[in-house]
Each structure stands twice: as C-alpha cells, then as structure tokens.
Amino acid sequence: EEVTESDDEDNLSSVLHQRAKMPWRACGKYLSAAGILLLPLLLLSQLLKHTVMVAIDYCLALWTEHAISIKIEPETKNCSQCMEFDHSPYSKVFSVLCCLGIVLCLVTSIAVEWTGLKVTKKLHSSLLNKIILAPMRFFETTPLGSILNRFSADCNTIDQHIPATLECLSRSTLLCVSALAVISYVTPMFLIALLPLAIMCYFIQKYFRVASRDLQQLDDSTQLPLLSHFSETVEGLTTIRAFRYEAKFRQKLLEYTDSNNIASLFLTAANRWLEEYIGACVVLIAAVTSITSCLYNKITSGLVGLGLTYALMVSNYLNWMVRNLADMEIQLGAVKRINGLLKTEAENYEGLL
Fold first, then answer.
1. Where does the chain cross the membrane (predicted)?
2. Which of 17, 110, 184, 274 has the fewest C-beta atoms under 10 angstroms from its C-beta?
C-alpha cells in the first residue's frame, strides 16, 4: 500500500509538472508551418504598429503639455500672445501617425489571417497524406471518431481560434512591454523596482496559468450539460407537461445552472484577483516614482500623466496576456494531436517478386 501511494504521488507530481509546462514543441510546429517569410512579416508589423501607437500617445502628451504651458505663462505676456499657440504642426504629425497606425493595423490583421490559413492548409494536407498512406493496422487500432476529430474539430481550432488568440496574445504582450517602457522612460527610478516586480509576476502567472486553464475547462464542461438539458427540455416539452414533470426538470435546470455559475464565478474572481493585485503594485510604484521625479527633476506634467495612464492600463494588459496564454495552451493541444498523427509511419508498398 505504501508503494502504491508513493507511485500515485509521483504520477500526480508528474501530471502537475506537465500541466505547468508550455507546449513549446506544438508552438514551434505551428510557427514553422507559417514559413520563413510570413512569420517575420507578422512580427515586424506587430512591432511597427505598437511603436506607432506609443508615438501617438507621446505626441498627444507633448501637444497637451505645450498648449497648457502657453496658457499658464506669467502675466508679463498679454492675452493676444497667450492665444498664439500654433496647433497645426502637432495636428499634422498626429494625423500622419493615426493614418499610419490604421494602415499597420490592417497589415497586421491580414498577416495574422494569412498565417492561420497557410498553417491550416499545410497541416491539413500533411495529415491527409499521412492518413491515406497509413497501414491497415492503424485503422484497426485507432477509432474512426478520433481521426474525424483531427480533421474537423482540431483543424477548425487551428483555422479560426489560434490566429485570433495569437493576435490577442502578441498585442497584449507588446502593449504591456510598451507600457513598462514608457513608464521607465518617464521615470527612470521605476527600473529599480522593475526586476523584483518581474520576478513576482513570473511566479504569480506560473501558478495562475494552471488554475485559469483548469477553471476555463471546468466552465466549458459545466456549460455543455446545461445547454443539452435545456434543448432536450424544449424539444420534449409536450411529454414533460403530460407527465407533470415540470418541477423535476426545473430543479435539474437550476442545478446545472448553479454548477456552471460556480465555475464562472471562480474564473472571474481569479481574473480580477490577478488584475487588481498586479495592477495595484504597478500603479503604486509608478505613482511614487513619478511624484519623486517631478519634485526633484522637474518632469513635465504631460509626461507624468502619460506614465500614470500607462500604469493604470498595465493591469488590464497583464490580465489579458495571461488569459490569452492559457487559451493558447488549450488550443495548441489541437496542433499537438495532429502532430502525433503526422508521426504515423506509411505503409511499405515495396512488394517482393
């Protein structure tokens, strides 16, 4: 019995270790299927888009700061001189950056969808060739439903869900990095607290990612019986009324609803905890460093406002980044399962004379 318990503990620890690991091989398989030309285009467009977005915010902060500084100048200047601020240079630069940002957003969306289409076509073609050339013992030992799921559900996940999740993950990651970069540029003292904050965020997301993924799967698994019971109740409503089983089916529907609400409540609470905890730390550190720098280094109010605005948005960016990372782990399971079938050895058609 002691040996059995120790084996169970080892198996449980190995399962938990596997759950905490990212499926890097499946991710590499997906990115390698995109090609050597499309993947750099996707990365470059994302970087340029977020660089332009940061430039737009910085230009707006400078525009606001200069416009306010003209109005609050000493009374040595008359009112006509106070109203002579020229907005045209800032408006032209702001308009050009906005147009460039719109174009880059379009290019990024096209690159993401193109990547997903190319990866799906390549994996589907490779999988079809492997299945057609597979030996007969493969079809005798593998259920037909499993093979059909690889071509239907998994290919649908790779085609529709992974590109959108990849775009959201890259966007939230780059927004988080750009926000930290802007805060560090405005208040260099923030770099002192950035390292322990990054270490803390790493360990928090390491444990949160597993819990978020499990809660998401629990939410999905408890939603399916609820929808099935509701549809069955609606279809058999005449029979239920004939046997006077309305109270029984109503009670069953409430039980399924409570189970689904419990999972959804825990998932929402976990997401809010991550957002509020990390966000409060970032806002506190950024506010203290900004006020300290403003008192001693005479930083303009526009840049301080820009840094605090990005600090308030870091919590939302981190929350979406971790949630998209958990979704990506679940969706990469489709790539992992298809990659497992791609390792099937083909039938040997070399006959003997």
1. 30-48, 93-112, 179-205, 277-296, 303-322
2. 17
pLDDT at 289: 78
Among 351, 349, 334, 332, CA closest to 132:
349
- Mention every residue, 6+ apart, whose C-beta is less than 8 A from residue 164: 112
- Structure-token pair, residue 197: 């904050």
Q: How far is residue 126 CA from its own chain's centroid?
A: 28
Strand spans (E) along 15-148: none
Helix (H) or strand (E) holding 350, with range, is: none
pLDDT, tens digit, for every residue of 7-62?
Answer: 444 454 444 445 545 567 777 788 788 777 777 888 888 889 888 988 888 888 88
Q: Which of 167, 169, 186, 174 is nearest to 309 (CA)?
A: 186
Mean pLDDT over each residue of the chain, to the nearest integer:
79
C-alpha 203/C-alpha 57 separation (Å) is 31
- Could you say which architecture CATH assigns to the domain 35-73+85-342? Up-down Bundle (1.20)
CA atoms within a 13 Å half-sphere pointing along the CA-CB vector of 239: 6
The CA distance from 238 to 49, in Å, is: 57
pLDDT digits (tens, 9 = 90+) for 75-129: 445 555 555 667 788 888 889 999 998 999 898 888 888 888 888 888 889 889 8
| Inter-residue contact 126 to 32 (CB < 8 Å) | no
Residues 215 and 266: beta-carbon distance below 8 Å: yes
Dihedral angle sign, alpha carbons of residues 291, 297, 303, 306: negative
